[in-house]
Amino acid sequence: MSLQEKCPIFRFGDLGDERGKLVAIEGERDIPFEIKRIFYIYDSDDTVIRGQHANRESEFVLINVAGQSKVRITDGKEEFVVDLNRPKMGVYIPKMIWKDMYDFSSDSVLLVLASTHYDGTEYIRDYEEYLKEVIKQ
Ligand code: TYD
């Protein structure tokens, strides 16, 4: 399976009407995991790179609910970049995939849905260490 097949882009249905738009996302239905945690990143800008890690246990879906950012995704062999620029699109990031988020617009609100409660010990923050671990899989 290619990296892009492992990390699909989801296009969520828009339940909008004349009052405005509405996107609903249900765990295990619209995305492949039960949602245990959400967090969101804002007040970043185009000078910072966030992420820069892989997770041994967590799966994520990243959605820019306002503004835009980019996420560079790699498994150590292939790489691709997703423009997160619509509130109704998200990218799925499975376990053991390295990601960097950058080019945040000043109004960017990057919502992250996660399959786990936070545990800092499941993060791999050193790219060389990541390459060593991912190659064993
Ligand atoms: P960090 O992982 O560096 O954020 P990013 O992925 O955007 O680069 O997290 C920043 C801080 O927030 C760090 O001290 C850990 C803490 N944190 C939590 O306590 N819970 C969470 O769910 C997340 C994602 C981070």
* Assigned CATH class: Mainly Beta
What pattern of helices and strands is seen along the backbone? HEEEEEEEEEEH
Q: How many structural domains can be distinguished in the coordinates?
A: 1
Unreliable residue stretches: none
Percent strand: 35-45%
Radius of gyration computed on alpha carbons? 15 Å
For the terminal residues, how far apart are their CA atoms?
14 Å
Count every helix, treating DSSP H or I runs of 4 or more residues as helices.
2
What are the distinct ligands in this entry?
A: thymidine-5'-diphosphate
This entry's quaternary arrangement is single chain
Mean of pLDDT: 97
Please state how the strands of the largest beta sheet are arranged side by side: 1-7-4-9-2
Helical coverage, percent range: under 10%
Kindly report the name of the CATH homologous superfamily.
Answer: Jelly Rolls
Give the strand tally.
10
Kindly report the CATH topology.
Jelly Rolls
How many strands, what sense, and barrel or not for the largest sheet?
5 strands, antiparallel
Tell me, briefly, the overall form.
globular
Architecture (CATH level 2) name: Sandwich
Structural class: mainly beta
Short description:
With 137 residues, the protein is mainly beta.
Please tell me about this protein's structure.
By secondary structure, this protein is mainly beta. It has one domain: Jelly Rolls. It contains two helices and ten strands. The protein has helices at 3-6, 127-135, and strands at 9-11, 37-42, 49-55, 60-66, 69-74, 79-84, 89-93, 98-102, 109-114, 123-124. The strands form two sheets. The protein has a five-stranded antiparallel sheet with strand order 1-7-4-9-2, with no helix packed on it. Strands 6-5-8-3-10 form a five-stranded antiparallel sheet. Strand 5 (69-74) and strand 6 form a beta hairpin. The protein is globular, with a radius of gyration of 15 Å. The site of thymidine-5'-diphosphate has 6 residues, from strand 2 and strand 3. Thymidine-5'-diphosphate binds next to strand 2 and strand 3.
